[in-house]
From TrEMBL:
Pfam families: zf-HC2 (PF13490). Belongs to the zinc-associated anti-sigma factor (ZAS) superfamily. Anti-sigma-W factor family. Residues 3-37 form the Putative zinc-finger domain. The lineage of its organism: Bacteria, Bacillati, Bacillota, Bacilli, Bacillales. Keywords: Membrane, Transmembrane, Transmembrane helix. This is Anti-sigma-W factor RsiW. The chain crosses the membrane at residues 94-113. The keyword DNA-binding does not apply. The keyword Iron-sulfur does not apply. It comes from the Bacteria.
């Protein structure tokens, strides 16, 4: 048993909240660890002193109160909240792994959102698409079969797109001659972009 866990269990034991199986494990650790056994003895003495003081008919003096406070603080675990959190993580491994994965993915995508300014053009049929600098043009009278995705640029749609048009961190310009068979959307917020990437990743994994 880890000594930090033993310290937490000492308090639970003295409060009467420690399960029987954990009590046996704690006692076994105390027999093998002199430092924890000394701390436990100190805790027992402190609790006994506190109980006696509360039952005493005479009020506690300022000096006695200060001494008692110092004694209590000296035996309290400094990271009990942290230990409780670790215990929760240990009892809920699947949720913990999912949460860590989510935040790692979110941090990674947000970093890419701020740093990656390169033009990216994706689609099943790009033979009629014209790229001029950061502008992606679908000329009038031409047709793009399938979806068209543009990152960090401007989509100037003058012809037909037989699918969806998605512009990420850019602009979408539609001419009067433009026709989009699917949906058209512009993603210019990091969180929307994150969900788009997650959806795209899951879709790619399922195909």
């Amino acid at each position: 048993m880890n000594c930090n866990v033993a310290i937490v269990w000492m308090h639970d034991y003295l409060d009467g909240d420690l399960p029987p199986q954990d009590i046996r494990e704690l006692k076994s650790h105390l027999l093998a660890c002199p430092d924890c056994r000394a701390r436990f003895d100190e805790l027992e003495r402190t609790e006994s002193l506190l109980t006696t003081s509360l039952r005493s008919p005479s009020p506690i003096t300022v000096e006695q109160s200060a001494a008692l406070n110092e004694r209590i603080k000296s035996v309290l675990p400094k990271q009990r909240k942290h230990s409780a959190w670790l215990r929760w993580v240990r009892n809920h491994p699947a949720v913990s792994v999912a949460a860590v994965f989510f935040f790692v993915m979110l941090s990674s995508f947000l970093t890419m959102w701020h740093q990656d300014g390169q033009l990216v053009v994706k689609g099943e049929d790009l033979q009629h698409v014209i790229i001029e600098g950061n502008k992606v043009i679908v000329p009038a009278g031409t047709k793009v079969n399938g979806n068209l995705t543009i990152e960090n640029g401007t989509a100037d749609v003058q012809g037909d797109v037989e699918g969806n048009v998605t512009v990420i961190d850019g602009n979408l310009q539609l001419a009067s001659t433009a026709h989009i068979a699917g949906s058209s959307r512009t993603i210019d917020r990091a969180l929307d972009w994150f969900w788009y990437k997650v959806t795209e990743t899951v879709t790619d994994m399922t195909h």
